[in-house]
Specification:
GO terms for molecular function: ATP binding; sequence-specific DNA binding. Keywords: ATP-binding, DNA-binding, Nucleotide-binding, Phosphoprotein, Transcription, Transcription regulation. The radius of gyration is 26 Å and the shape is globular. By secondary structure, it is of the alpha/beta class. The chain has three domains: about 5-115, Response regulator (Rossmann fold), CATH 3.40.50.2300; about 165-340, Rossmann fold (3-Layer(aba) Sandwich), CATH 3.40.50; about 345-485, Helicase, Ruva Protein, domain 3. Helix content is about 50%, strand content about 10%. Strand 9 (about 290-295) and strand 10 (about 300-305) form a beta hairpin. The protein has a five-stranded parallel sheet with strand order 2-1-3-4-5, sandwiched between helices.
């Protein structure tokens, strides 16, 4: 595997979990398996065998195992597989042993039990990021030895690959989508070093937009780092973003470089900025105003050069009026404000999104050849998707898992989706109560969406009496039954 593979949009880094307790393995797998490929081992011997055959980006190892301790095994890993990032998990009673072996084993970080899923996921993400950056440094050193011409060529190739993988074209949408205007404005402001605030519901793709802005900017050759401000306790967020010095607080056993320093010359993406406390907002405002930060416990400030892209599902103007968000920080973040529309407001984007997600999820689940049946798309377009793209992806994964053939039919969808089209009807109504035609998609896709809404409305009004509904619609019972089956409409009772 090469570093260029890391830029491939379908690449998932490999994480090796080493723990003799199956329940602990399962808990970590559930936390990490959406973002990473996972392998599990119950002992150091099993882990060695796996490392001989697979290149792991990160290894998470329990401290207490039969035979070797976690630190002792990670010491061996450092010698034989030095590029694998090493993380040890332990209870409080093991902390002295781990501290004594941190330098010798080259442990990136240790996590105390009981661990928090969001913190574990974020730690592994940062470990992969650190590994990628380190490997990039090694390659740059080789390039420098080869000469500046080779350096520019290699750097240009990597940048072109990154822009192809994470550019605005990678934000899936149909022609004429409401996202076109958002992406056009984002592409314009990407060229200028302005702060950007991205608003939108959870799961609408705010992070994808932020990444596209970074790779469309003059900072594209610099790092892109992200942090979910809601996933880390407020007491740890300052240390995570700005760093800390050894001994600054209990548990600070060594200097920690914060994300702002790692992103020097690049972009920091702060997700869910609206969840931060007023105390933290003061410290963030100072960094943005002065262009320098002070790690926790450090007597001297450090200059940093970063662009900040913030995102939130909250209405920050309301939060400012309510006194929960600082007005001066709000205006500092809103150089440009972009709004990501929810999926229910861009129904025409569902077909291309669903086709792409079917390919991606099908490949991840070992079913690369699956396709949509004729009745599936109408059902997908008839559901309001309150969880947006994230919910759509999960529903597609469920449908693939429950389908045996190559065609994914509507009956494989959850009851929530099959019976949730009344929500789409409400979302599609204008002020006069009349359903409106979707503004994007092919003619057949638009007609299917409207037909599904009309059928659902009549069936609800007729209390799912097929005889009366068929008479109202001018259909035979057989014809009505065929249409209900095509769109996956069933009596919720």
């Amino acid at each position: 595997m090469t570093d260029d593979d890391l830029l491939h949009p379908d690449y998932l880094p490999l994480v090796l979990l080493v723990d003799d307790e199956v329940r602990s393995q399962d808990a970590m797998r559930r936390t990490l398996d959406e973002d990473f490929r996972i392998l599990c081992a119950s002992s150091a011997d099993e882990a060695r065998a796996l490392l001989e055959r697979h290149e792991a980006a990160v290894i998470l190892c329990d401290q207490r195992m039969p035979g070797l301790t976690g630190v002792a095994f990670l010491r061996e890993v450092r010698e034989r597989w030095p590029e694998t990032v090493r993380i040890v998990i332990s209870g409080y009673t093991d902390s002295e042993d781990i501290i004594a072996g941190i330098n010798e084993a080259g442990i990136y970080q240790y996590i105390l039990k009981p661990w928090v899923p969001d913190h574990l996921l974020q730690t592994v993400r940062q470990a992969v990021e650190a590994r990628t950056l380190q490997r990039g440094v090694h390659r740059l050193e080789l390039d420098l030895r080869a000469g500046t011409t080779a350096l520019r060529a290699r750097r240009g190739d990597r940048l072109a690959q990154a822009r192809a993988a994470f550019g605005f074209d990678r934000i899936e949408r149909a022609p004429g989508s409401p996202l076109d205007g958002v992406c056009e404005m984002a592409a314009r402001v990407a060229r200028y070093d302005l702060s950007v605030l991205v608003l939108g519901e959870s799961g609408t793709g705010k992070e994808l937009l932020g990444r596209a802005i970074h790779y469309g900017s003059p900072r594209a050759e610099g790092p892109f780092v992200l942090e979910n401000c809601a996933a880390i306790p407020d007491t740890l967020l300052e240390s995570e973003l700005f760093g800390h010095k050894r001994g600054a607080f209990t548990g600070a056993f060594e200097d920690h470089i914060g994300l702002f320093q790692r992103a020097h010359g690049g972009t920091v993406f702060l997700d869910e900025i609206g969840e931060t406390s007023p105390a933290f907002q003061v410290k963030l405002l100072r960094v943005l105003q002065e262009g320098e930060l002070r790690p926790v416990g450090s007597p001297r400030p450090i200059p940093v050069d970063v662009r900040v892209i913030a995102a939130t599902h909250r209405n920050l103007e309301d939060e400012v009026r309510a006194g929960r968000f600082r007005e001066d920080l709000y205006y500092r973040l809103t150089g440009i404000t972009l709004n990501m529309p929810p999926l229910r407001e861009r129904v025409g984007d569902i077909p291309p999104l669903a086709r792409r997600l079917l390919r991606e999820v099908g490949a991840e689940l070992g079913r690369p050849g699956v396709v949509w049946a004729d009745d599936a798309m109408g059902v997908l377009m008839g559901y309001p998707w309150p969880g947006n793209i994230r919910e759509l992806r999960n529903e597609i994964a469920r449908a693939i898992a429950l389908s045996d053939g190559e065609r994914i039919e509507a009956r494989a969808f959850s009851t929530r989706v099959l019976h949730g089209q009344a929500g789409r009807h409400a979302a599609a109504q204008g002020q006069d109560g009349v359903a409106t035609l979707p503004q994007t998609g092919t003619l057949q896709e638009r007609l299917d969406a409207i037909e599904a809404v009309v059928l659902r409305e009549v069936m609800l009004r007729q209390r799912w009496n097929k005889t009366r509904a068929a008479a109202e619609l001018g259909l035979s019972r057989v014809g009505l039954r065929a249409k209900l089956q095509r769109f996956g409409l069933e009596d919720p009772k």
